[in-house]
Amino acid sequence: MYRAGLASILSQLAREDAQVVENFVLDAPKTKLFLQKVTEMGVADSLLLITDQLDDNLVLSSRNLPNVLVLEVAEADPVSLIRYQNVILTRKAVGNSRDAGMNAPQTARPRRKQRREIRNA
Predict the structure, then answer these.
(1) Is 17 a residue whose pLDDT tops 70?
(2) Burial 56-84 (b: 16+ CB within 10 A, else e)
(3) Interatomic CA distance for residues 20 and 14, integer angstroms
(4) Domain positions in the chain
(5) Which long-range contacts (CB under 8 A, 24 or more apart) does 91-98 make?
(6) Structure pTM?
(7) Residue 121 class from Cβ within 10 Å (0-12 exposed, 13-18 middle, 19+ buried)?
């Protein structure tokens, strides 16, 4: 159920609201550089940035901003995906979410009843 909800939200964001970028890399751990790059992308309000792999410069430059959250794709949760007004995904993060099965909900297999042979002794 959880995976299906997450997959549904991610696919809806990828189709409509989220911006998909090739990569999101900063040269230095400066909040000013992060804000400059985000402003160039047209983001003014709260932001959720989902990457395939966390970069130290990215984490350090965004941690002082109250309305910004940077996550790896494996750490994404439905509440964060809905809470933030702007979502930016890296292309590799979208690919990793599909490879990890996040976009394809898994169904549970029914348990097989084990048959026990009754042996007459």
Answers:
(1) yes
(2) ebbeebbeeeeebbbbebeebeeeebeeb
(3) 7
(4) 2-99
(5) 91/20, 91/21, 91/22, 91/23, 92/23, 92/51, 92/52, 92/53, 93/50, 93/51, 93/52, 94/14, 94/20, 95/52, 96/52, 97/10, 97/73
(6) 0.73
(7) exposed
- For 25, the token pair is 């890399």
Q: Which residue has 């009754």 as its token pair?
A: 118
What CATH code would you report for 2-99?
A: 3.40.1370.10
Q: How far apart are CA 15 and CA 18, in angstroms?
A: 7
Q: Please write the tens of the pLDDT for every residue from 28-86.
A: 999 999 999 999 999 888 999 998 888 899 999 999 999 999 999 888 888 888 899 89
Residue given tokens 């002794």 in the structure block:
121
